[in-house]
Amino acid sequence: MRLAFAGDVHFTGRTLRLLDDPETAFGPIASTLRDADVTLVNLETAVTDRGTPQPKTYHFRAPKTAFAALRAAGVDAVSIANNHILDYGRQGLSDTLDAAAEARFPVFGAGRDADAAYAPWLTTVRGMRIAVLGMSQVHDLAGSWRATDTRSGVAMAFDPARAAAAVRSARERADLVIVFMHWGIEGNPCPSGEMKTFARRLSEAGADIVVGTHAHTLLAGGWLGRTYVHYGLGNFLWYANSHSTDSGVLNLVVRGRTVMDSRFVPATVSASGQPVPATGAGRQRILDKLATAQRCTSLAAKRPG
Known about the structure:
Blueprint: E1 2-9, H1 30-34, E2 38-43, E3 46-47, E4 61-62, H2 65-72, E5 77-79, H3 89-103, E6 107-108, E7 110-111, H4 114-117, E8 121-125, E9 128-136, E10 153-154, H5 160-173, E11 176-182, H6 193-205, E12 209-213, E13 221-224, E14 227-230, E15 235-237, E16 246-255, E17 258-269, E18 275-277, H7 280-293
Parallel strand pairs: 1-2, 1-15, 2-5, 3-4, 5-6, 9-11, 11-12, 12-14
Antiparallel strand pairs: 1-16, 7-10, 8-9, 13-14, 16-17, 17-18
Helix pairs in contact: 5-6
Family: Belongs to the CapA family.
Protein name: Poly-gamma-glutamate synthesis protein (Capsule biosynthesis protein)
InterPro entries: Capsule_synth_CapA (IPR019079), CW_Biosynth-Accessory (IPR052169), Metallo-depent_PP-like (IPR029052)
C-alpha cells in the first residue's frame, strides 16, 4: 500500500483564485497525489464566511469549494489540527465542520468537543484498517484553542496523557495508526527537543507513522525504532513565499504496520501558489537539502533490519 502526505494548504490571496476551477486548483502535482492509496494534507484555514477575526496577525478562510478542490486533487482527508482553524473563532470552526459534513469530506484533529477532536478518521484500504489522528503543538494564542468536554477546539499535544490515550485507543481499532502533527519553529529545518520528545511518546503509545507540518520549510524524516517520523513537509498550496518555496510529496510504501520505503517527490511553490513538480538541478537541490536536514533529526536514515 502506498500513502502520500503533503504540507500546508489553504485558499487565500493567489490561491483563492485557483478555486475558480476546483478541478484544476492543484495543477500538475495532483497526479502524484492521486497515485497513492491514501493521500493526506493539512488544511490551514477555516472554511467559513462568518465569525470574528481572532487577535492574531494572520487570518485564513476559504469558501466551501475548497473541499471540491481537495477531492479533485486526490486528497482523501485533511488534518484541521493547526493554528488557523479557529482564526474566525468557534463560529469559524463550526462552519468548517458543517461544510465538511455537507461535502462528505473527512476532517480530523478538531471537533465540537474533546472526544470528537481526538477521534481518528477511520478507513479501510486493501483490507487494512487505518486510523489517522491530528494534533497541534503550536504555542501562543493557538495553544489556548484546546478542545474540552464542553467546548469545541483542537486536539492538543500539550495534554500528553490524553494524546497517548487517543493513540492507544486507535491502536485497538486499526492495523495502521498515523498521527498528523502541527508543530515546529517557523523557518527552522531542524526539529526541537519538544518535537522529538513528543514523537517518542507517540511511538511508545503505538503510532506507526508520524508526519508534521507548520514550519513553512522542509524538515527531514527517518525511523524512530519501528515508527516512521517525518518532521515537516513545508508549504504546499500556499498564498506567499513564506520562508521557502521548496515543497513536495512524501510517498511511503507500507506493508502491515511497517514503512518499507520512503520517497520524497520534490516540488516548488510557483507564482500561482501551486506546487509544481521540480526537475533537474532544482529537484536535486531539494533532495540534497533534505539529506542535510536529516542529520539533525536523531532519526535513522534507513529502516532497521
